[in-house]
Structure formats: C-alpha cells, structure tokens
Design brief:
There is one protein chain. Strand 6 and strand 7 form a beta hairpin. It is built from 6 helices and 14 strands. Helix 4 packs across helix 5. It has a 12-stranded antiparallel barrel. The protein has a two-stranded parallel ribbon with strand order 1-2. It is rod-shaped and about 140 Å long. Helices cover 18% and strands 41% of the residues.
Length: 433
C-alpha cells in the first residue's frame, strides 16, 4: 500500500514538473506587425480584381448602375480587414444610419470579426498609415456616360478658283448736303439790320459741303449755305413781295493737325445776300447783293468737338489774327455799312471766333448752333444762330430758328440798343443726302 502511494506521488510530481518545464520553455507569442509594402500590394491587387469585375459587368444605359457595381460592397470581397465603422455603430446609442446597405455590411463584418478573428489579416489604421484607403469607400459608385452629339458631315470644299484683286485708290473727298422748303411764322425786331417785318412767309434753304480728310494730318472743309425767304404783307402798299431771310455764305477751312483734336487753321469766310432788303411801306433799300459783301481771312487753331457718345459734334475756331474786307456796291449804302468818304471798300484787322456745333438730342430732335464773333478796335459784332429741327417723317420736319445779334457799328435803337433779334418757326419738306 505504501509503495502504491509513493508511486502515485511520483507520477503526480513528474506530471507537475513536465507541465512546469513546458511552461518555462514556451516562448511568448508576439503580435506580428504587417509589412506596409505587402499591405499596399494586397490592397492594390484587390482593387485591380474589383475593377476587372466591374468592367465585365458594365452595360448600356439602365444596366450601368447595379448593386454589383456599388463600391460599398468592396469590403465584402477585399481581404478581410477590421474597419472601425462596425465597432463604432455597435458601441453607439444609435447603431443605425440612413444608409441601410452600409449598416448591413458593417453588421456582417462584425459577425465575422467575432466568430472568425483568425481570418482578419489587417486593420483600417494600418491602411490609413499606408495612405491607400479611400474616403469614399462607403459611398455609392455612380457611372456617368457622356453621349457624343451627332456630327454633321463636313461639306466638300470646292476647288480653289483664281480670282483677280482690284485695289481702289482711297477717296478722301466727301460730298453731302441737305435742304428744305417750309412755311413759317416770322418775328423781326424793328431795328433788324437787313429789314423785314413780322409775318407769315415761306423759306427755302440748301447747304452743300465738300470736305477732304486724308485720315492723317490734312483736312480741307468747304461749305456753301444758301437761304432765301419771301413774304407778303397786307399792310405794305409799296412792295408786293419782300425778303425776310436772305443769306449766301461760303466757308472754307484748311487744317493741319497739331495734336490729337487740335489743328492749325487757315479760314476764309465770305458772305452776302441774294436780293434787296426792304421794309414795309418804305422805298428805301437797306441792303442788296454785294451791298455789303464781307470777306474774312483768319489764322489760328481749331478744336474738333466729339462728345456725348458721338451725338455732339462740331468745330471751335480761335483766330487771333484776322483780316476783314468789306465791299459795298451801292454807294448810298456805304456809310450805313461803316465806309466813310467816297469809297466802296473797307479793310481792317480783327480777332475772330467761329463755333459750329450739332447736337442730336435724340433721333428725331437736333440742335444746330453757330456763334460768330468779330472784334476790331472800333466795332464788335456777335451773331448766334440757333436752329431746332424736329423730324416728323423722313421728308417732313418742323423748324424753330432763333437768331440774336449784337452789332455796335449800327445806329443805336431806343428800345433794344445794339441788340437785334429774328425768330421764325415752320413746317415743311426736308431732304438730306
């Protein structure tokens, strides 16, 4: 009995020593750290396999988008990896999200992690450190197809045919003009220098221009203005017809560009009238053709005006050196025109300013104005012509003409002094070319 007990104790002691020796000889198990390069390679290989699978499932139009191509299923087919989203949802108070597919995949992966942890070969942290995980792995993959528009057939170009080129010499001359025939109501002050009276009458006018511009430096402008108005006055028992508008004026300007809109200018201005100037119930002739005839030649500078988007255009001439020549054919009118003694002519030097502007206020209404000022040592003359034109149609227009004038070379009037005024309005035919 004692031997059996000793043998049993010896066996137990041997087993104890064997277990202790096994425990001492057993090496501790170290966690294997995955190789980063290997992880990246495995991940890229899985992407290539997935891409080949997706390419094989591509279809036309409505078959392009299927659940088999959904990127959210990638985690089920890639090498088993521990993703954080499943664990986070399991520990969250709201384990469900708006994406039912992602929730189902996370639930399936968590079941796999718990039942077969030995199949997990990697984790999401290592993939993020390797820099190869996609942020949109849980998002739906949508493929977009761009359809090419139908391209029209390119027409065949005809064979090249030789052509002849004609080069025309540039024409720097420009001719234009306008005219009108109108009926009007006329007002003339009692001291108007050419006579006349307030009445209803008719007037005809024509303006012709021939201008040269070489688009470089030289300009040469020529304008001929003709205007003649006649009237009948029931109160006039001496004259059946009289003139109330009478003008024959020629302006010529030669310009050489100095700087941009400034030009050196030589201007010639000549003007007279067509017929005799009369007053009602008066036999006296107050003016006549070439009685007087005025010729002005001036040298100075001209500024070309172009403003308001091209609606306001014109010229301003500053002529500090001017020569005035006056000729009076009728000797009985010489003294009234400033000529003393038995002479027909008068010469004098002066300074002169001439400004001509046209403002197209709008398409139907325009304003033409001309300001002429001439001063000598003993006489000052200022004329300001204003014409407002309202176009009713292409060939019918209405005009308002206002013409104030100052001339201290004439006799002073008790009512208006040296000022004179002419005004008329009319409606009639007009034509421009």
């Amino acid at each position: 009995m004692k031997q059996k007990n000793i043998l049993l104790i010896a066996v137990l002691l041997l087993l104890t020593l064997t277990v202790s020796a096994q425990r001492r000889t057993r090496k501790p198990i170290k966690a294997e750290v995955p190789d980063t390069a290997l992880v990246v390679k495995q991940y890229l290989d899985s992407l290539n396999v997935m891409r080949q699978r997706l390419d094989s499932l591509q279809q036309v139009n409505d078959q392009l988008r299927t659940e088999q191509n959904d990127g959210r299923y990638f985690r089920l087919f890639a090498p088993t990896t521990f993703y954080h989203s499943g664990a986070q949802k399991s520990l969250s108070l709201q384990p469900k999200s708006d994406d039912e597919v992602a929730d189902a995949i996370d639930e399936a992966l968590m079941s796999l992690y718990l039942r077969r942890p030995d199949l997990v070969v990697d984790n999401e942290t290592n993939l993020q450190e390797a820099g190869s995980i996609r942020d949109d792995v849980n998002q739906e993959l949508t493929q977009e197809v761009e359809l090419t528009d139908f391209a029209a057939l390119v027409p065949e170009e005809p064979e090249a045919v030789p052509i002849s080129i004609v080069v025309h010499k540039p024409n720097f001359w420009k001719f234009k003009g306008d005219g009108y025939l109108q009926f009007l109501q006329n007002y003339v002050s009692t001291n108007w220098h050419k006579g006349g009276e307030s009445n209803y009458s008719a007037v005809a006018a024509a303006n012709l221009e021939l201008n040269y511009n070489d688009k470089d430096r030289i300009t040469f402008d020529n304008k001929l203005e003709m205007k003649l108005g006649v009237q009948t006055s029931p109160s006039d028992t001496v004259h059946k017809y009289k003139t109330n508008n009478d003008l024959l004026r020629f302006t010529s300007k030669l310009g050489i560009q100095a700087h941009k809109k400034w030009y050196y200018t030589l201007q010639l201005l000549a003007y007279t009238q067509f017929a005799r100037g009369l007053k009602a119930n008066d036999e006296k002739v107050y003016s006549d053709f070439t009685s007087p005839f005025d010729l002005n030649i001036g040298i100075g500078m001209q500024y070309n005006v172009d403003a308001l988007g091209g609606r306001l255009k014109g010229t301003l001439n500053f002529l500090p050196f001017a020569f005035n020549f006056r000729y009076v054919a009728r000797m009985d009118l010489a003294e009234a025109n400033g000529i003393k003694g038995n002479h027909h002519t008068l010469e004098d030097f002066a300074s002169q300013f001439t400004g001509e502007l046209k403002w197209n206020i709008f398409d139907q209404l325009s304003w033409k104005t001309r300001l002429f000022a001439n001063t000598t040592y003993h006489q000052t003359k200022v004329e300001w012509e204003n014409q407002f034109e309202l176009k009713v149609t292409k060939y019918i227009s209405a005009n308002l003409f206002v013409y104030p004038r100052f001339d201290d070379g004439n006799n002073r009037d008790d009512e208006m002094g040296y000022f004179q005024l002419q005004e008329w309005s009319s409606v009639g035919l007009t034509y421009s070319f």
